[in-house]
Amino acid sequence: MVEQADSPKKRERSPEYPAFNLEEAVGKARILLQAERRNAAPMNAVLNDWDYSSKSGAGIRAVSTLEKFGLVVSEGSGNNRKVRLSEDAFNILVDDRPDSADRLRLLQEAALKPTAHAELRAKYPSDLPSEDTLRHELRTRGFTEGAASDLIREYRDTLTFAKLDQRVTLSEDGSDKTKLPSGPPLSGRLSRQKEQGMTVLSLQVSDRLVELAVSGGPLTKSELQILRDYLQLQEKIAP
Fold first, then answer.
1. What is the pLDDT of residues 206-216, one digit of tens each?
2. Could you write out the three-class secondary structure of 5-29?
């Protein structure tokens, strides 16, 4: 009787994730805008614009990464495949206003479009845990050790670039301002503000209480519009 040899071990393959962070993706989108404008370009032309060789594996992954972020759109397949900038990518690139709220909103939406990013954001909507905890979480989702480390680094860099690791406030002129969270917990700040005679608006959301502290009298219509715009932004990036 002839014993059968053990079948070769199947190579472990991770779920898909961006090959590089959003900042680098926006940089490649800018190169594409300069070279091709908003036209659909053949795949080889796009790879050449980015200094990749024809049919380069790294180049193909670069196109895939921009697709994951929603910065490019592919048309056709095989030798007929073409790539063009998305509407969101164009609006990001041409918006050169300092501290533009519109550009920030589009960047934050792009940052959470990759499936791996959306899942991490849903699991950790505020502060991220340690790298060891993140790596363990990704390993349970089928990522290899190396892929988990790569994704963690890329995801953190993307959150920083899109200012999703910061607190965002909107001013009356429509611009956005960001700052790192600081000071005591919100409940402590609200307590002190109540003591100082500030009006606190309370709203029951599901099983949680949401409170908004307001100073200087009732909110004006323009201030309510700012608050409405901010909530709409949060709705788009919420898990």
1. 666 677 777 66
2. CCCCCCCCCCCCCCCCCHHHHHHHH
